[in-house]
Amino acid sequence: MNFLLKLIITAVVAFGLSYLLSGIHIDQFFTALILALVLAVLNTIIKPILIIFTLPITVFTLGLFLFVINAAIILLADNFIGGFRVDGFWWALLFSLLLSFFTSILYRPEKKKD
Question: What is the pLDDT of residue 114?
Fold first, then answer.
């Protein structure tokens, strides 16, 4: 249930950001749902591999290179999804930062009190 809720929140935020950012284009809400699912899969499979391969530069930049990895994941998703288009690296970087920020604010699982 939490996974579906997080997918829907990510899709809503991504669809909203496509209206705010002129370099991000999402055709319809269904495409945003597909984007959220593809991002979940890429973040689960590809992102850890990229982090391991780029560990020296990530340590050297004090973790800032992780933003570049996030933008690369967005650009990779752009290649897989037909109705989703990103105009360049900087738009992907801004989109990934805002997407992470807003989804972390909107999705806060309730802590169980014992």
Answer: 59
